[in-house]
Amino acid sequence: MKIATPLIDFVGVIIGEGKLKLQPHIIKRIVDFEEETLKSKKGMRSFLGFLNYARTHIPNLGTLQRPLYEKTNAHGDKRLKRSDLELIHQIKRQVQELPDLKVPPEQAHIVIETDGCADGWGEVVKWKAHKKDSRAKESVCAYASGKFATPQSTIDAEIQACINALEKLKIYYLDKKEITLRTDCQAIISFNNKANSTKASRVRWIKFADALTGTGVKINLEHIDGKDNLLADSLSRLVHFCFEECTRELDCIRKITMEEEEGIMN
């Protein structure tokens, strides 16, 4: 165990100096993976296991991995085609160019940008030193996304995206007095502005109001133009391909991760 050290190694990442980044040996293992090894199911699973460490660093990594996971399925095409090799090379290049995620200081103001579509939702967690600072001074500290169990209407998707953000990203804001929640849905902003004078008759609005008031934190809703909400929008629209509800694949990921962590420790 290390104490009084500015950098900490933890489950494949380095935490310190206000940043979160992949450990060099994880990056090296991914980049140096031989194509011949990837032709076997065991080799492909091992490669995907190491890529799992980069999930929080690369938006939409699940989309890129999807064709490769098919190689590990019982009935999937095991052959490595030219398109598969090009995809692997693309991922290897991207892993070598990962920007560091920036850990928010204790007094930072947290901003969560949300977006929803029929299939899923996407969130980007940002922070800035002071609430009044411009958006240009904001830094990304986390990504999140998910798939809806059933297709949603436009307004329901946007509302649920906000609710999911408040529920699933509590670790970033529960110690704050207030945060900013951004959405490109004008209906949500209008509802919030009129909430004190107009009763919402729809269940979705009641649920949304409960989510806003149930955190114990002041939630400042802010509108963002769709053209400026590209990252959250991309996460939500590609999530259908990233996170299909498949128990077998999830169990496979967990197993791979445990095996590779044991290998690293040994």
From TrEMBL:
Provide a GO biological process annotation. Answer: proteolysis
Which residues does the UniProt record annotate as the domain RNase H type-1? 106-241
Quote the InterPro entries the UniProt record gives.
DNA/RNA_pol_sf, Rev_trsase/Diguanyl_cyclase, RNaseH_domain, RNaseH_sf, RT_RNaseH, Viral_Replic_Matur_Polypro
Keywords, in A-Z order: Aspartyl protease, Endonuclease, Hydrolase, Nuclease, Nucleotidyltransferase, Protease, RNA-directed DNA polymerase, Transferase
Pfam families xref list: RT_RNaseH
What is the protein name for this chain?
A: RNase H type-1 domain-containing protein
Q: Which SUPFAM superfamilies match?
A: DNA/RNA polymerases
Instruction: Say if the entry is tagged with keyword Hydrolase.
Output: yes
The GO terms this record gives for MF are: aspartic-type endopeptidase activity; nucleic acid binding; RNA-directed DNA polymerase activity; RNA-DNA hybrid ribonuclease activity
